[in-house]
Amino acid sequence: MSENNSPALPSHPPVVAGKHSRLGIASFALALVAIILMCVSYFAINALVDQNAQQSGLSSSTLHLLLRASSFAGYFGLIFNLIGVGLGIGSMFQKNSRKLFGILGLVINILALCPWAGMAFL
Hints:
mainly alpha, 3 helices
């Protein structure tokens, strides 16, 4: 009897997904940048309100300028989140690429949009 009864090994390695999707990486990066911008905006506005309540000595025009700048940071965060959602969805349809960063970016961007959606219904 032959001792070579073991099944034949495949002649080629199994197919593994390619590199991470560039769209997914961009979506994830935009999610992180947007969250940082929104946090900076939130803390800056709170600091300005506290300083204004304590009459810190800053002129009214300086306070308004700082308030507008921090508000723009929050709005840029919103725009980055919307772009990140689009990139995350686009990364889901790329063939032969890993979807990890696309999924992470999509989930984080959607979660970061929830407060904006909540404010829209107030």
